[in-house]
Amino acid sequence: MNAKSWRTLVHVIESVKTSDGGGVKLHRSIGSRRGLYVDPFLMLDEFFSDNPNDYLAGFPSHPHRGFEAVTYMIDGHMRHEDHLGNQGDLGPGDAQWMTAGRGVIHSEMPQQSEGRMRGFQLWINLPAKEKMKPASWRDIAASDIPVVPIPAGGQVKVIAGIYEGTAGPINGHEKKLTTDPSYLDVSLPAGSEVVVPVSPGYHAFIYMYEGSATIGDVGEGSLLPYRSAGVLSDSGNVRVLALEQGARFLLLAAKPIREPVVQYGPFVMNTREEIEQTLADYRDGNFT
Ligand code: FE
Q1: What CATH code is carried by the domain that includes residue 200?
Q2: How far is the CA of 245 from the centre of ligand 1 (A)?
Q3: Which of 154, 228, 229, 259 falls between 20 and 30 A from 281, CA-CA?
Q4: Spacing, Cα 70 to ligand 1 middle (Å)
Q5: Ligand 1 centre from 81 Cα, in Å?
Q6: Is 201 inside any structural domain?
Q7: pTM check: above 0.85
Q8: Structural domain boundaries enclosing 222
Q9: How far is the CA of 100 from the centre of ligand 1 (A)?
């Protein structure tokens, strides 16, 4: 594979500590400042703590409109319930793909009082014509997420999209999802590399949640440190080389929507008027 075909690291977004929901401590990279999006990705939170006081408050009942929220657990249990009566308990390695569409009111609460809680929540925008579609959700068991070994060492879990011919449970190519997202969880031992093809023009970023790695050609500006999101250039394949501690990271890619984004907390629309309408709908009980 030609080095020219590799995407480069164009911007490193260090995560910042914040809290959300009832007071859950988390590390936010994408979405940590107004406008810090990687279209169509709006936000990525990592929650990771061995201290129950950091997570027990959970995310009590709250609304969303206009986008999709994907929860992926590494350690611990999270129970969700929504206004439609849906409920599920996500355990280690499980995921939930929730399309808020015109409105969902739900809670996401840890189901443990001790031990490690670790996972991610990613927000993916919806195009204008899909923002008001009915809410839907899907729980994905860890056993339904394919694990593809990398011949030279390491593995790729395919939550969405396709890697080396293996499709994940969310396959936007087949289902014709507008953003056709890829969501890969990659583990690399020290000194190993992986090359992942990403469609030209799709936006992509990597979130490093263990260790560190270089992106593309090794050299100045190629280092992606721990707990940072690396925004990649727009064409070519993605090459990641793990440094001496190995690397675990999420690789997210999707087709950009290229529409205006107006966000007000848990609501993401195209215009201020739509946000005002959303607030009115929520106040008047016409939300879902
Ligand atoms: Fe939520």
Answers
A1: 2.60.120.10
A2: 33
A3: 259
A4: 9
A5: 10
A6: yes
A7: yes
A8: 3-283
A9: 9
| 40 Cβ contact partners less than 8 Å away, ≥ 6 residues apart | 124, 125, 126, 179, 181, 203, 254, 255, 256, 257
Cα–chain center distance at 33 = 16
- Residue 212 maps to a domain: yes
In a domain, 288, yes or no: no
Residue 4 banded pLDDT, cuts 50, 70, 90: low
List strand residue ranges (DSSP E) for 83-154, in order. 87-90, 95-99, 104-110, 117-125, 136-140, 147-149
Does residue 128 have a pLDDT over 60? yes
Cα of 106 vs centre of ligand 1, distance in Å, is: 6
CA of 109 to the centre of ligand 1 (A): 10
How many domains does one find in the chain?
A: 1
DSSP string, 44-94: EEEEEES-GGGTTT-EEEEEEBSEEEEEEEEES-EEEEETTS-EEEE-TT-
pLDDT by residue (tens digit) across 226-238? 999 999 999 999 9
Distance between Cα 104 and ligand 1 center (Å): 8
CA 198 to ligand 1 center in whole angstroms: 29
pLDDT, tens only, 235-283? 999 999 999 999 999 999 999 999 999 999 999 999 999 999 999 999 9
If you measure from the C-alpha of residue 7 to the centroid of ligand 1, how many angstroms do you get, rounded to a whole number? 32
Q: Tell me how far the alpha carbon of residue 5 lies from the centroid of ligand 1, in angstroms.
A: 38
> Contact 237/6 with Cβ under 8 angstroms?
yes
| Residues 117/75, Cβ–Cβ less than 8 Å | yes
* Residue 41 Cα to ligand 1 middle (Å): 15
